[in-house]
Specification:
The chain is α/β, with parallel strands linked by helices and about 350 residues long. It has ten helices and ten strands.
Length: about 350
């Protein structure tokens, strides 16, 4: 599934294309997508395909197409402080984006069947926290992942404000979880009343059925408990929030306006051939058929591009953004261990 929008040269251009196609419609969702580079969740040898609007699968590791994740994030209608459960959490890419919106007082849990994928997700989460330039721009709700079959969740688990399942539920499990053969938004409107809205026509692989033990009983999945933050952790959240307010006030005083996003370097868009079809072979490899090059590269188009180039002055890439929060923390008259605690022991 995918191919709804043009490929990007980098993560920002992919997001630009998703916005242009109206898959991303709100600022919160856009910020979350820009903060986490999709390529970071690919194996190194497959990163060249990271910014295509296509699903990717390698062994047990799987990423849905960007257009699917966009619709999911918009449909979830996330707000700070909500609780979220991701059934089939996979690489943790979606859960991490959700965590950027939920904030430090949200709940962010994921259930994944394959233990090797859980390990992969934890590695990617650790890499994001330690190295991402975007981390300090948000108050993050770190996801917690558990291994197990999401059809065997313990009946005494807490309810969640938002639940996502990217798979089809077989008919015999309809009472356990609503049928998700198509991506659907289901809202509880009463004790036994539901409102269902079709979001996007998409075929998901069915959920894997539970494997019963020798005694004939299923192995119940215990979801993580809702953790109560320590006083030390709450102090860190409050201090970081206060420093961010000081930075904002200083910026307003200096520039006479609020914080603005750093202007992104925009490349001259290259005319691409239009992709007409995508054919999946063996569920992992795709082949594409593109239109005749002469359809897209006519003399008139080339002349138009030449005129645009003459009018457009050469652009230079802006300087890398400055992490003012990190600078402020490191300048505080505090012991180094406390400074690095406030920075979550991040490398940069």
């Amino acid at each position: 599934m995918g191919g709804a929008v043009s490929a990007g040269e980098d993560n920002d251009e992919l997001i630009d294309n998703l916005k242009e196609a109206q898959y991303i419609r709100t600022e919160l969702v856009e910020q979350a997508f820009r903060a986490i580079d999709r390529a970071d969740y690919y194996l190194e040898e497959f990163k060249e395909n990271a910014y295509k609007d296509l699903a990717w699968k390698h062994g047990n590791i799987h990423l849905s197409a960007p257009c699917i994740y966009s619709e999911v994030m918009e449909a979830l209608d996330l707000q700070p402080g909500l609780s979220f459960l991701n059934l089939g959490s996979g690489t943790g890419y979606l859960s991490s984006m959700v965590g950027l919106i939920l904030g430090p007082f949200g709940v962010n849990h994921g259930v994944e069947l394959h233990s090797d994928v859980i390990e992969y997700a934890k590695q990617k989460l650790d890499f994001f926290i330690r190295t991402s330039e975007s981390f300090d721009k948000f108050d993050f709700c770190e996801p917690s992942f558990v291994t197990g079959n999401c059809l065997e969740i313990s009946p005494d688990c807490a309810q969640y404000d938002r639940v996502y399942c990217g798979a089809g539920v077989q008919k015999e499990h309809e009472e356990y979880m609503k049928n998700l053969l198509k991506l659907t938004k289901i809202t509880r409107t009463g004790p036994s009343a539901w409102e269902t809205k079709k979001i996007l026509a998409v075929s998901f692989a069915p959920l894997i059925q539970p494997c019963h033990s020798e005694s004939g009983k299923s192995r119940l999945v215990q979801l993580p408990p809702v953790a109560v933050r320590s006083l030390q952790d709450l102090a860190r959240i409050a201090i970081r929030a206060t420093i961010k307010k000081v930075i904002h006030q200083e910026t307003v005083s200096k520039n006479g306006n609020g914080l603005k996003n750093t202007p992104r370097f925009k490349r001259r868009r290259v005319r691409r051939r239009r992709m007409e079809t995508i054919v999946f072979l063996d569920k992992e490899v795709f082949a594409s058929r593109i239109s005749n090059p002469s359809d897209d590269n006519s003399c008139e188009d080339l002349e138009e591009e030449r005129r645009e180039e003459e009018k457009t002055p050469p652009e230079t890439k802006p300087d890398p953004p400055v992490n003012f929060l990190r600078q402020k923390v490191l300048s505080l008259p505090l012991p180094d261990p406390l400074k690095y605690y406030l920075l979550y022991y991040r490398e940069k």
